[in-house]
Amino acid sequence: MSTHAASAHRHSKDLKNGPDTIDFKSNTLKLFTESIQRRPGGKILDLGTACSENIRFFTQRVQKLYICDMVSRLAWSLYKKDPVHKIWRQLDYPAKSFDGILLWELADRLDERDVTTLANLCHTMLKPGGLLLMFVLGERQTSPVVNSFVIGQNFRIHLRPQPHLHLPLCTRQNRDVLAMMSAFTPVRSFVCRHGLREFLFQRD
Questions:
Q1: pLDDT tens per residue, the chain (204 residues)?
Q2: DSSP for 27-86, written as a single string
Q3: Which residues have CB under 8 Å from 135's CB, separation 6+?
């Protein structure tokens, strides 16, 4: 896969917006998945909220799928008023273990110190040439409600609210996202009409 600089591209025609739903075709998910499928023995680590649809989607396409719901762990840690750094113990995987990592909106729920820790851990866990997929909420989105990013047919994603999870929201501009992921090479980015941004990064 080419590792050219990230470019923003609007694909509003693939987006369905209603009062209670966001549904869109994810170009970066398609690139991410097809690239992992071409790697022998592809292994993916999903750090978002677990859902059966995503488990089914990836187990049909890659050799191994690992799930570590860091969103729920983060919410529980904040509820108990525990230091956030304790949750990183859950990511004790050996270095260079994975061909791909899915962050979904996890980075939006962390302050600068903790998001830097997460980025460094992901860089360590990825194999050379491995890919990291993340979604970043738009600046217009101020609701603290956490979402599951549920994968459907033809790489369509809809957001399923998880109102039982209470987390802060740290919105970031594109330059801030690129800065916090500076250890990676940006491959592609897309901006949906509603402001949700998709980023695909690669470890050199």
A1: 433 333 333 333 333 444 346 889 999 999 999 999 999 999 999 999 999 999 999 999 999 999 999 999 999 999 999 999 999 999 999 999 999 999 999 999 999 999 999 999 999 999 999 999 999 987 665 567 899 999 999 999 999 999 999 899 998 999 999 999 999 999 999 988 678 899 999 999
A2: HHHHHHHHHHHTSTT-EEEE-S---HHHHHHHHTTSSEEEE--HHHHHHHHHHTT--GGG
A3: 103, 104, 105, 149, 196, 197, 198, 199
Per-domain boundaries in the chain = 12-202
Chain Cα centroid distance, residue 92? 19
CA 196 to chain CA mean position, Å = 12
Residue with tokens 């039982």: 164
Q: How far apart are CA 169 and CA 57, in angstroms?
A: 28
- Give CATH for domain 12-202: 3.40.50.150
Cα 198 from chain centre: 8
